[in-house]
Amino acid sequence: MGQFFKQYLEPIKLNDVHVDWKLMDLSYLMEGDYLRHLANIVSNAKPVYGTDIVLKAYNIGGDVRILYRDQEDFERITRRFGIFYELKDGIPRTKYKVTVIMAMVMNPPMMKTGYEEPLEELHRIRITLSSKSVKNLEKVCANHVSGAKSKLLKLTGPYVSTQLSNCLHRANDYYFRCKWTLLQVQS
């Protein structure tokens, strides 16, 4: 109990920006609409291949889809992104059906000369992976967080999404989407 509290839950703060939810159109969150919306996001995401997928994903600045061949390939990708995962009794903690949501905000490390809060967001990135194993996808999440922290990047979140996808890729494959924002250090 509480093994990840300090690392992931303690930094969460109450939103300080007022949102009038009554004025927001949230109809896309209805189950049928949401699944179509999510399928559309994944199918329109730009595929990224090669050994420098992190750099390519960063430079795209939009939705990204990364497919992998096997567990070893998946783990290689996850080490590059260091993505968090957590299970309770073998079930992802933030699961929707077979979907686990993940979003991250990554700030650059503090510089020796000082650090100013970034004024604007540079990129919003979503990464999509496909696998037959949710556990592999969850390993990607864990590696993403640890990788980002090893580079002294400040993270908030994370929210991960994995979902059984019969229509987007091959039957019984899962796709994975993570989203985070890279912020610029102002000089």
UniProtKB/TrEMBL annotation:
Pfam families per UniProt: GNT-I (PF03071)
EC numbers: 2.4.1.101
InterPro entries: Glyco_trans_13, Glycosyltransferase_13, Nucleotide-diphossugar_trans, Ribosomal_uS10_dom_sf
Membrane topology, from the record: Single-pass type II membrane protein
GO cellular component: Golgi membrane
Pathway the protein contributes to: Protein modification; protein glycosylation
Name of the top EC class for this enzyme: transferase
Compartment annotation: Golgi apparatus membrane
Descriptive protein name: Alpha-1,3-mannosyl-glycoprotein 2-beta-N-acetylglucosaminyltransferase
